[in-house]
Design goal:
By secondary structure, the chain is of the alpha+beta class. It has 2 helices and 8 strands. The chain has an 8-stranded mixed beta sheet. Strand 7 and strand 8 form a beta hairpin. It is globular.
């Protein structure tokens, strides 16, 4: 796959309770990774992910992050195809940068570009 899914994210109003729920349900060993965020480590051939506490007024969500080389170019191409930018490229210290777009059907998809 040229652009694999490399991360998932589940967000909700009570992130800590949500992380505990998935820990109890699936045995995920989440660990705090900043304010209102818990990492789900890569295990057993799956992909790693995160659980996030959403801001007030933000709905619960599940999304995936696709690995790309160039966030700006990918966002531009997505827009040409009918998508809408939601979050501009944003750095994540020690990881790279991410961005979010909404596809023509309303699904939110993340993009992740690693540090070079």
């Amino acid at each position: 796959m040229a652009h694999p899914v490399v991360h998932f994210e589940i967000g909700g109003q009570d992130g800590e309770a949500l992380a505990a729920f998935y820990g109890r349900l699936f045995g995920w060993q989440t660990r705090p990774a900043g304010p209102d965020y818990w990492l789900v480590p890569l295990e057993d051939g799956g992909i790693g992910g995160g659980v996030m506490q959403t801001r007030p007024g933000m709905p619960a969500y599940v999304t995936v992050y696709v690995q790309v080389e160039d966030l700006d170019a990918t966002l531009a191409r997505a827009a040409e195809l009918g998508a809408r930018r939601l979050v501009e490229p944003t750095p994540i210290e020690g990881v790279g940068s991410f961005a979010l777009f909404q596809d023509p059907e309303g699904n939110v998809v993340g993009l992740l570009a690693g540090d070079r």
